[in-house]
Amino acid sequence: MPSSGPDKKSLIGLGADEMSAALAAAGIPDKNVRMRVRQLWNWIYVHGARDFDAMTNLAKDFRAQMAEHFTLGRPEIVTEQISTDGTRKWLLRTGPGIEFETVYIPEEDRGTLCVSSQVGCTLTCRFCHTGTQKLVRNLTPAEILGQVLVAKDALDDWPSTAPGRSVTNVVMMGMGEPLYNFDNVKTALVILTDGDGLALSKRRVTLSTAGVVPMIARAGAEIGSGLAISLHAVRDELRDEIVPINKKYPIKELLEACRTYPGASNSRRITFEYVMLKDVNDSLADARALVKLLAGIPAKINLIPFNAWPGAPYECSDWAQIEKFAEIVNKAGYASPVRTPRGRDIMAACGQLKSESVKERASTRLAAEKSAQLARMPH
Fold first, then answer.
1. Is 101 a catalytic residue?
2. pTM of the entire structure?
3. Interaxial angle between packed helices 213-222 and 251-259, expressed in degrees from 0 to 180 and rounded to the nearest 10
């Protein structure tokens, strides 16, 4: 996080207990700590304060003490792109090679922020651009929440409790596998859904996983958000290829975890994401198998036209085929909207997110190698 001093700790992303301990360590008297945490929490997450000077109802000496020890720094915005359809994408950086993307998708009835949980990804899902970038590291709670704060700053979306907010929904569907960064994601989402802070309903937060089966029940019990499953195939041999984590946790185990997901009901359906790949997983037999697989699970099926990227190994299914596939799913009683691709012109659509850090590091390395070669050449 940007900071004017190397020893300053960011207050963003600290739970209430952690913030209390940090204030006590900074010399705030024990009898005042609880009140001060409440005040800071309100300024940071309700009003979006970017520095302590903005906290005008707090004493100057207290603000100065806070500024001496702490920062409210956001991630650095490397680039901001705005699509012709209004979708926005930010490439953010918090250190050398630590880059990640977040996307805001405005719609008539909602504004959805797609948030990343890792720099790169441990998984290698073949349809996903992020999967071509190796994992650099997990994002911290401050970096996860920082994406929300950056978006709300850009959209002038403060205070967070005001009616008509721009960011109404958050989906953990950006770069990375959230359940492989469980503790940090949990900390961030607890703050995101705190009624005295960013105040987003748990019903408006969705965590997407490629199928880390042992963590699914824990996510339901400890986070309690909506659940989305990146399914994309109805047979293990095909899913092994498209979503390789399936080799570890096959479809049968994954669906059993969904059937027992805490809180799943007809009013809180599990979303199954299914990317439409031409002549790979889009046959009408696949549609019928999908319906059969999900029998008994309170489910919604999102059909996603494949969003191509340079070097992608697949093509998008023909639109007529997607419609026939959707008709079978709909007739079986499942809501199966075909997700309209958003932000394709700025590579912000589903499966297209990838930071530039790998490319930049490669460019830097090539330049260095070229310089070294020139230096070795006889003059």
1. yes
2. 0.86
3. 20
- Does residue 114 have an active-site annotation? no
DSSP code of 285?
Answer: H
pLDDT in tens, 343-352: 556 554 454 4
Among 121, 253, 350, 360, the active-site one is 350
Catalytic residue among 18, 68, 101, 241: 101
Domain of 30, CATH number, reads 1.10.150.530
pLDDT tens digit sequence for 8-45 = 899 999 999 999 999 999 999 999 999 999 999 999 99
**Omega before residue 313 within 30° of 0, cis:** no
User: CB neighbours of 40 closer than 8 A, spacing ≥ 6?
Assistant: 11, 19, 23, 55, 66
| 125/246 Cα distance (integer angstroms) | 10
Identify residue 162 by its one-letter amino acid code.
A
Count of structural domains, the chain? 2
364 has a pLDDT exceeding 60: no
Answer yes or no: do 49 and 99 share one domain: no
